[in-house]
User: What shape does this take?
Amino acid sequence: MDSEEFFNIFMDRLENLTKDTKEQNFIKDIFGGTLSNELIADDGGKKLYREREEPFLTIGLQVKNKKTIEQSLKAFIEGEMLEGDNAYMWEEANKKCNTLKRACLKRLPNYLIFVLKRFEFDFDTMQRQKVNDYFEFPNRLNLEPYTQQGLRKAEEAKKKGKSEEESAEGNKAENPDEFPSEYFDYKLTGIVIHLGTADSGHYYSLIQDREADPSIPEEKRWIEFNDTIVTPFDPKDIPNEAFGGEEKYSQIPFNFTYIDLLYYNRWRYHSVGGDATGSLHEKMKNAYLLFYERVTPIKESDLKKPTGDTSEENKESDGKVIKGDDGAIDKKEAQLAKQKSTQISHAVPDDFLKDLHEDNMKFHVHKHIFSREYFDFVSELVFQRSYAPNPAFIKNAGEIEKYLESSALSEFELLKMGVIFLLTAVIRDKSRTNIVRFLPGIKQILSNVIVFCNCFVCANSSLN
Assistant: This one.
């Protein structure tokens, strides 16, 4: 399962958990946007138009043969002409017309996720392969040129022979309900990096801390999350870390973790076929998911649909043709939203919070129980204690109780803890190194303190 599949499954589970609650739309409110699938034609000067809206949580962008995210977005909205035998049949005109079929962004969420298409299936080799091409993306991104509103502005400017800036000003005067410029302005706040090949690999994340002290510059708020390793990250290294492309091999990077090194060697020798020092090879690590956040967050309730040309445009829904809706953003509301916190808080159902808390507690308990630090702590408690030698052999439960009343009970409990730790944690350690260190010590103590073995069995002590 790759990170995109995990995201989709995770969102689906959350949606099911919040179904039929007051927060059932919270995922769409945060990540949900709308694509417009358009059909545009001209019948002797009469404009023909149809639109089908499509919701999205992520947007897939082509990487192969695209150098920048702007090039990929331009290809995304480019569309295709349906002409000749493939022309579209318009009922309104009762004939086939050459038609432009395209998709574009219509409504944008506060948090926008791009999925870079780094994996594809090669029909020549019949194998899945990874695309490691160079793909550049900026820290700030304006999406208006790739939206329905932006395309209409550009088309209107082309008709009137105006620049896009002049056309934008004219449209604002004629259609004051259009989205303002801050609606399309986004900043980069997170990156998921894939390290490896199409068959195996490792994911880690670069995230900007949005809750940091406002006095700290944004470029100093980035953090790298690589499994258990969490370190500050310099965003100046994003091009080298996330853009992909080619690199020269001279030596292994000093900041490689063990996992990085594992996949580095596997990729270098399996996919490239060796290493020639100083030669150029594709980078094995590059961005897979990009997280952009609107610079000025706007609540969904404050948004209205952008104004359309309702005299000529129709919207297609459930096979029926209906008139499009007009709408607007209240500038005063947008200004108020700008002054609010950039964080979107949503009430989460109590049952979900309880389950989440329990799962987190289990995760942290297991994480610490199997950690090296906890193993050393228990080992020190058990093995650095001097235990009293064996008393007379205990034959019945009454003598056990008498022994426990007269003996230091802490020794019994300490050994009990050591045995339980051995049977529940040490033997489950995947590395098998801890059991080699722990088992001989426990055996030696138990052979010298046989009375404990009798007490442990006869008193029916529970391992729970």
Observations:
- Confidence is low (pLDDT under 50) at residues 265-276, 307-334, 336-346, 460-464.
- The CA atoms of residues 272 and 361 lie 43 Å apart.
- The chain has two domains: 24-346, 370-458.
